[in-house]
Each structure stands twice: as C-alpha cells, then as structure tokens.
Automatic annotation (TrEMBL):
Protein name, per record: ATP transporter, ATP-binding region
Entry-linked SUPFAM superfamilies: P-loop containing nucleoside triphosphate hydrolases (SSF52540)
Domain ABC transporter: 21-252
Keywords, sorted A to Z: ATP-binding, Nucleotide-binding, Transport
UniProt key word tRNA-binding: no
A Pfam family reported for this protein in Swiss-Prot or TrEMBL: ABC_tran
SMART domains, alphabetized: AAA
InterPro entries assigned: AAA+_ATPase, ABC_transporter-like_ATP-bd, ABC_transporter-like_CS, MacB-like_ATP-bd, P-loop_NTPase
Length: 252
C-alpha cells in the first residue's frame, strides 16, 4: 500500500544519501513545429554535496534556462530533476515555493533589495515566509550579516550601502535559511574588480564551510575560482567536469 504522506515530508527533509542535484534527460522546449526551440536538450548532470561549480556557455547556450530549472523557477518539458533526493520536476506551485524557500538560496547580478528597509530586515524576509519566530529571525539575520562582514551595518538601508555591501546583504539573505544549495547568477556582473574579488572570497569561504554552490558566469576569471566548470552549447552539456584552469586551452 502506498501513502503520499512520506513524499510531502520529504519536500523539506530530502535524502542525505543522494546528490544535491541530479538531472536526468532534462529537456525544455518552447514553441512547436518550425518555431520549436530546444533550450535544453537531454541534459544529464550531477552535483554532489559540497561542490562549487560554475556554469558557462555562449549566449543562447541554455545556461540561464538551466539555472532557472535548478532553481525550481521553471519546469522541464520532460525528464526528472532530483533536488536533495526529492523529485521536484512534477511538484505543484505551492510545493515548489516551499522547496525554494527551504532548500535554495539565490544571489543575482541585481541585488533585489527592498530600498526602504534595513539590511537586517531584508535578510529576515525569507524567514518570514518560513514562519520563523521573530526573535529567532533577528538572531539568525544578524549572524548571517556578520558572516558576510556586515555585522556593523545591520541598520543601514540599501541606499546607504555600496554595491559590494548590497551584494553582501543579498548573500546573507540567501544563506539565512541554511539552504542545501546556493545559486548565483552573474553575482559580480555589476561590480568592479576589487569588489568582485571580495565577493568571490565570500563564496569560496561559504563553500569551504560545506555549502554547495552553483554559479552562472560568462567570465573565465570568475569561473577559475570554482572547482569545476559545466559548459553548455546548444542546450546540451558538452563538458561536465572541465578543470577551470583549462578554460584558456580548450576549444569550444
């Protein structure tokens, strides 16, 4: 006899014996007939706990679609996606929202902070949706900001912070719910070189503490700070385990 109750429980618990990301024959098709576009075409990919991967490829290669898929922001046309041991490909919208809140942290090129509230209040937002008690929200929010070096700026609003500091707030917000996976989409694209290096140091430190990180980037210098590169072309993975140091020698 089969019960659906264990599956509901597994949405937040997952399975520690499985990979953080396991994609099996994932396709994403837009349009039909002559207008059909296969943004993803039979993608297989595994990311294990504690890895730090970058996703690269030319414009239109499928890397942004892949990030949306991994982040449960889009659904595959076919195939299976296991996130922390949970098959999320066919979940309802409500269940996907729960997965995004509990299991995933997002960092984007644009910081997406609320300008009228403090850094601490921005960081506390994901915990509101997770129904975390107010006192615990504040404690965890402060700890997350301290973790990214902004313990002395918790009351500052985004307009009172530099671009690099705003991205630190965004990272703190992304990690405050202790996600199993941190996703970063061109997180240094709006930053200067010095600030970029500082932000990349934070990602490396988070990874060194055990956090699994996947980053989309078009910059080889950024990708070289990760452990491996996944290279996309025409909706397919053409290199799943490219050594970042080989970026300048490999023909794509």
């Amino acid at each position: 006899m089969t019960s659906t109750q264990p599956q509901a429980q597994s949405l937040t618990e997952g399975n520690p014996d499985q990979a953080i990301i396991r994609l099996e024959s994932i396709t994403k098709v837009y349009g039909a007939g002559e207008t059909e576009v296969r943004a993803l075409d039979g993608v297989d990919l595994v990311v294990n706990p504690g890895e730090y991967c970058s996703i690269m490829g030319a414009s239109g290669s499928g890397k942004s679609t892949m990030m949306n898929m991994i982040g449960c922001l889009d659904r595959p046309t076919s195939g299976q996606y296991f996130l922390d041991g949970v098959d999320v490909a066919q979940l309802s919208d409500t269940e996907l929202a729960l997965v995004r809140n509990r299991k995933l942290g997002f960092v984007f090129q644009q910081f997406h902070l609320l300008s009228q509230v403090s850094a601490l209040e921005n960081v506390m937002l994901p915990m509101v949706y997770a129904n975390v008690p107010v006192k615990e929200r504040r404690e965890r929010g402060k700890a997350a900001l301290e973790r990214v070096g902004l313990g002395d700026r918790i009351h500052n609003k985004p307009t009172q912070l530099s671009g690099g500091q705003q991205q630190r707030v965004a990272i703190a917000r992304a990690i405050v719910n202790e996600p199993v996976l941190l996703l970063a989409d061109e997180p240094t694209g709006a930053l200067d070189t010095k600030t970029t290096n500082e932000i990349l140091d934070i990602f490396s430190t988070l990874n060194a503490s055990g956090m699994t990180v996947v980053m989309v980037t078009h910059e080889p210098e950024v990708a070289r700070t990760t452990q491996r590169v996944v290279w996309f072309r025409d909706g397919q993975v053409v290199h799943a385990h490219l050594d970042p140091e080989e970026l300048h020698t490999t023909a794509f």
